[in-house]
Amino acid sequence: EQSDFVDDLYTQLAQQSVDVEQIHAESAPGQVEVVLGKQDDAMRLADNVVLARSTVSAVARKHGMKALFLPKVFADQAGNGLHIHMSFRDLSPQARLEDRYNAFRRTSVLGAMSHKGSSFLEGILDHLPALMSLTLPSTNSFRRVGPGCWTGHKVGWAVEDKESPLRVCMKAGSDEPSNVELKLSDSTANIYLELSSILSAGMDGMARQLTLRPKVGPSDEGGDALPDSLDKSLAWLKEDKVLLGVLGKELSTGFIALKEAE
Q1: Which residue from 68, 92, 89, 63 is spatially nearest to 79, judged by alpha carbons?
Q2: CA atoms of 161 and 180, how far apart (whole Å)
Q3: Which range among 26-35, 71-80, 107-116, 177-186 shows the weakest confidence by mean pLDDT?
């Protein structure tokens, strides 16, 4: 039954030109992960997320099922996230050829991120407490955050650590970092606001040439605690001039008022 659903879902997405890398079962009962293909156009990626979500719901109904995107369905099982992987290319005229493919890694040092990649990470970390109000914008979202939830519970990063909110991923079969994964995201977010805010936070770090803080492992004592509620994250957002500037006064005022009313 599930294989028929997956086959139909893949076909329906392909007919809409939504590139899919993989569809596979996850750890919770009835849980399936859909991995969308890479895009160099953030707007196209956001459109694909919206199309994929609506298509999953429609195909599930067709097969007598109901698709749930709620972040935390079962208290004792893994929740539903919307993890975002990011890398970037250097398209400046003086860029080296390898950086035109992936400027996230530092080609001169084995296993190291580039200066721009490190500053991009630090920009996201610097804004992360406020950013969570846009990437996890519901009370239920925060039930998926904490130790053992594969989201992390501290403001920090690590290499190939699924318990870190920012996971630096290594290229398969090598010691080269390829991209960064943000785990503090789910389907209650507006993907357009979310992506624009995440990218703006990272680019703010690059513009300020921020130095990346030391990585934080699961047993390390370093790293500030993440906000444990939407209210606390909204309080951070109210003080974040960069993210408020991205949203604009009218949208940010309306967004905060709406979330506080909920």
Answers
A1: 68
A2: 11
A3: 107-116
